Every structure is written in C-alpha cells, then in structure tokens.
Amino acid sequence: MKTYSLEAELRAISTVCDADDEVRGQAQGLIDDHFATPETQEIWGRLQGLARLGKAIPRYTTLGQDPALSDEAREILTTEVQCCADGEDFAALREQLERFRQVRVLYRGVRDVAEGFRDVDAESIDRALTSLEQVIISARSLDDSVRVLDVEAAQDTVDDVLSQRKLDRVPTGFRRFDDAAGGFSRQDLVLIASTTGGGKSVMANQMAINAYLKGHRVAIVSFEMSESEIYTRILSAISEVPHEDIHMKRLQPAQIERIRDYWRRFQQHGDRTGGRFSILCPTIDMTPQAIGQILRPGGFDMVLIDYVGLVAGERNKDLWENLGTITAGFKNLARAQNSVYCAFAQLDEDTNKVKYSKAMRHHSSNVWRWNYGEEEAETGNVTIHQDKARHCRTFSFELIANFATMQFTDPEGWATVRQQLDGETSEPTRHMKVRPQLREIQDPVSAALQDIPRVDDLDL
C-alpha cells in the first residue's frame, strides 16, 4: 500500500521556498503530519524553525546546502521539482498530501488496535471501539479544522463581522427569548437543566419541533426514551390530543384521524421549507465523538442531547471530570459542524444549581435552568432563568408548561404548533433549495399508533 508521495512532499517544500507570497502563505499552513519520510520531516521542521525565528526562507536550491540539515536530507533536496504555480495548483497538491495523511492514520490506527486487542471481554472491546473512534476522528480532513488566519488575509472576516445582514442563528421558537437574543448562535454549546420531572425531554422535543417548523434541520439524541416514546409525545404536541390517550391506546376514531391529519401537515411542512426532523436513540454507550460521526453527514442546524449524564465517558475518570470532557466534546462538534448543540442536564433541587456544573458551564455559551414544583404544576407558569449568555445579556423569561399535550409555549398567546400547522401564523421565512428525505421520521409514527384502527376501517 502506498502511504506517501516523496515528489508531492518535495513540491510542498519547494512551494514554501520558491512560490509567490500568496501561495507560499497557503503552503505554510501545512502540518507536520503531511510529511511521511524522516528526511522531509526534518526539512519541514527546519523551515518551521526559521519561520518562528523570523528569518528569511531560503530558495529550494539553497536549502539543499544548509549545514543544519543531515546528509540524507540534503541529498534528497537534489531532486528537482516544480513549486506550485498558483493557489489552484497548491489546493490540488494539498488534497493529495491530505489523502496520504489519512491513509497513514488509518493504517497505523487499525494496526495498533488489532495488536492491542487480546481478550474478547467487555472492557477490551470498549477500549478497542474508543480507539477506533479516535482513529476515525484523526483521519478526518483537516481542511475545516486547521486554519491560521493572518491579519493580511482577514478582510473577508472583518467584512462579515461588520455586515448588517440578518443574523444566521437557530431559533428556539420561544418569542421572548428569540426577540431578545435572536436565537442561539451557531457553533455554540447550550446547557439546559431542570429538576427531576421538570420536562427536560419535553423541552428538547419542543425546541426541535420549533426549529423544524422554521425550516431548520434538527436531531434529537435521546438516551432516555425509545423512538416510539418520542413520537408519541410529538404526535400529542402537534395535534393537541392528550398524550395519555395516545400512550394508553384509548383513542377515539376522531382523535386518530386528527393525529394522522396533523402528522401529514408536519411532514409536508418539512417538504415545503427544507426542514429535517431526525431522532437517534442509542441502545449502546456512545461518546460525543461517536455521536458526531453519525450525525455529521446530516448537516444539522441543531442537535439536542437528552441527556448529558448518560453519554459515555472514560471509565477511569470521576463523574464531574467526565461531564466536563463530554461537554467539551459537544462544544467541539458544534464548532466543527457549524451547528448548535443543546445538552440537557439535571438540576439539583436543594442547591438550585446544575449538578457537577462548573466544568459544563465553562464550555457552554448559554445556560438555562428552571424549577418545576407544586406551584408550577398548579399554574403551568415556568420561569426560565438564563444564568449565562456569551452573546447577549442574561435575563429570565416565562413559558407555559402543558404536560397533558407535552408542550412548552409562550404565555402571551403566540400560536401553538397546531395553530402554526393550521396556517394561523405567517409562513417561515427560511427556505432551502434541497428537498429533504423524511423517510426516517415515518416508521416511528406507525409504531406509536400501532393497533389503533383507521377511521375508514371502522364500521360506523
């Protein structure tokens, strides 16, 4: 198996030495792992050292006479190669170097995992799977994750910051928050916490529904509920048929028809606006990295993790340390995927703080919390406290909790999901050209409604 190209590596070195300033600057963004042989690694290290010291980079032919290099390195520099002529030429070269880097990472990683996989026991298998996940992550393209932006090349970024176009944020669907903050910023991690029975899963579903109705691509990752349980709640929320009736299989024919009608509208809304609604209910331990690998191709705008305490961590770490590492992993995924990650957590009823929150708060851009006690259960009024906000001021806002139909809604009569599907509010303004595949959200609904006859099957 060919794992490197000596010619390509020498062309990269020649480009740093001999190309014009623009192309040379691009070439200096390569990393050590793009070079495979001891000689090219030595030469690249020498060039990097000169750059760090602020010294001039020599021409390729002059570099071959550098006494600081070994005889083997100087010998290899006698090979004549052409530097990249322009940015397009270098982009092709970089892609070639990147592909070879990925091959080497995969080859070495799989070999090391195989050599270390001695016993067929649960701990060995978990360790091997974790190692393979890290191999895949390391092999992923560096194009989007490694970038050095010098001030000379930052004009586009400055223009983007100063532009007055509408913020590209993901709405929560809660008007008081969205009006004040504009929704959640992409590349952010949001920590959301409530007490036991406070409706964390209901909140996750509601936020996902709201974003979907605005034409966004959303995914719920639930370690707490099955697909059927989630869709039972979603069907109740969009149709306003009591959840208990659906769950207990005691629906009347008119209710069944109503649910099917609003389910069709829900699907058609996604077809029309470009929204996507997906769920992932793992039945095995999964790390943030594994979750990211599964969701990466979906291009999701918002991912909701229900809940963070059930995400797999490292066996030899304390819980508080694992939760910090896990939330850091989700923060990195949000940045890499240009999406919003919402991690749901447990609120301590005695201290009114997120359990083990110090590390998790550190990695979060926003922190929401609410209590749900006797007063909230009686009135339905819930106060959401935003204790941390990186991009706006901190503030609290009110919502109405209706657990009979599994909803959180604005208190001032802003349209519910059902009313939006009825067309009682303006159409979403965000549209995408690509028509999504919604097949993944059809089967769970049949499961939620199984054994319930259709109206046209009944002898009325």
Notes on the structure:
This protein has 460 residues and is an alpha/beta fold. The protein folds into two domains: 134 residues, DNAb Helicase, Chain A; 289 residues, 3-Layer(aba) Sandwich (Rossmann fold), CATH 3.40.50.300. Helix content is 46%, strand content 12%. It has a nine-stranded mixed β-sheet, with helices on both faces. Strand 10 and strand 11 form a beta hairpin. The relative contact order is 0.11.
What's the quick description here?
By secondary structure, the chain is an alpha/beta fold. The protein has helices at 6-18, 21-27, 38-52, 60-63, 71-76, 87-116, 122-139, 155-162, 175-181, 200-213, 227-239, 243-247, 253-273, 288-295, 319-337, 357-363, 374-379, 417-421, 443-448, and strands at 169-170, 184-185, 189-194, 217-222, 276-280, 302-306, 340-346, 366-370, 381-389, 396-402, 407-409.
Keywords:
DNAb Helicase, Chain A, disordered C terminus, 460 residues, two-stranded antiparallel ribbon, nine-stranded mixed β-sheet, alpha/beta, 19 helices
The tally of domains stands at 2
Number of H/I helices: 19
Tally of extended strands? Answer: 11
Low-pLDDT runs: 425-443, 451-460
Assigned CATH architecture of the largest domain: 3-Layer(aba) Sandwich
Q: So what's the overall shape?
A: elongated
Helical residues, percent: 40-55%
* Strands in their spatial order, largest beta sheet: 5-4-6-7-3-8-9-10-11
Mean pLDDT: 83
Note the topology.
Layout: H1 6-18, H2 21-27, H3 38-52, H4 60-63, H5 71-76, H6 87-116, H7 122-139, H8 155-162, E1 169-170, H9 175-181, E2 184-185, E3 189-194, H10 200-213, E4 217-222, H11 227-239, H12 243-247, H13 253-273, E5 276-280, H14 288-295, E6 302-306, H15 319-337, E7 340-346, H16 357-363, E8 366-370, H17 374-379, E9 381-389, E10 396-402, E11 407-409, H18 417-421, H19 443-448
Parallel strand pairs: 3-7, 3-8, 4-5, 4-6, 6-7
Antiparallel strand pairs: 1-2, 8-9, 9-10, 10-11
Helix pairs in contact: 1-2, 1-3, 1-6, 6-7, 10-11, 11-13, 15-16
